[in-house]
Design brief:
Largest sheet: 9 strands, antiparallel
CATH topology of one domain: Immunoglobulin-like
Oligomer: single chain
Number of strands: 9
Distance between the termini: 133 Å
Strand content: 25-35%
Order of helices and strands: HHEEEEEEEHEEH
Radius of gyration: 40 Å
Length: 202
């Protein structure tokens, strides 16, 4: 009986050692990879990458401002009041004339490069912007540089003119994105608007 018990115990001991030698292989948990999958990449769903702005190095030159050569002058004749910015009426970089017959203001600008019969004059103030459809003038006048002149009308009661009357600072203009011009908003310009509105036809 004792011999049988000893043999049984030996078998159990041999069985336990065999079990210890057959442990399953466990892959280590990739914590970094799991964390990376749980965080949404900025490029998911075709989103644009996140880019931090890079400050310009010291001494970097800023883009030049649009030309601002000249000054405003106010004139009045039988056709009405007109404000001219530049060195003269024929060479004015921008003119704004009262057109009482049409209850409008006529904006006019030259362009040495344009050849199209119609252009868009953009007018921008800090408080609001607008545009005027302008047409090439065929008056036969010779102008410096052979430039064409474009003009178009804005109704006297256009909301943008009310913004202009309350503005100060700078008026930015361009013709279809070309020939940018920066002019100060001064009394000569506002005076044309005010006088034209005072004489507006019913």
């Amino acid at each position: 009986m004792a011999t049988a018990l000893l043999m049984l115990c030996a078998a159990c001991s041999s069985s336990d050692k065999g079990a210890d030698n057959t442990t399953d292989t466990v892959e280590p948990l990739n914590v970094v990879g799991a964390a990376a999958k749980s965080v949404r990449s900025p490029n998911d769903d075709n989103e644009p990458p996140l880019v931090k702005p890079t400050p310009a190095p010291p001494g970097t030159a800023m883009p030049p401002l649009p030309p601002r050569e000249g000054h405003w002058s106010f004139q009045e004749d039988s056709n009405g009041a007109v404000a001219l910015f530049g060195s003269g009426s024929d060479d004015a970089s921008l003119s704004v004339r009262c057109d009482r017959a049409d209850n409008a203001l006529t904006f006019s600008r030259p362009d040495e490069e344009a050849t199209a019969p119609v252009e868009i004059l953009n007018l921008s103030l800090p408080a609001g912007s607008t545009l005027v459809r302008v047409f090439r003038e065929d008056d036969g006048k010779e102008r410096s540089g052979g430039s064409a002149r474009y003009s178009g009308k804005m109704p006297l009661r256009a909301p943008w003119l009310s913004i202009l009357m309350q503005s100060s600072g700078t008026l930015e203009t361009d013709l279809g994105g070309r020939v940018p011009l920066s002019v100060p908003v001064e009394d000569a310009l506002k005076q044309v608007v005010a006088r034209c509105r005072d004489g507006e036809r019913e």
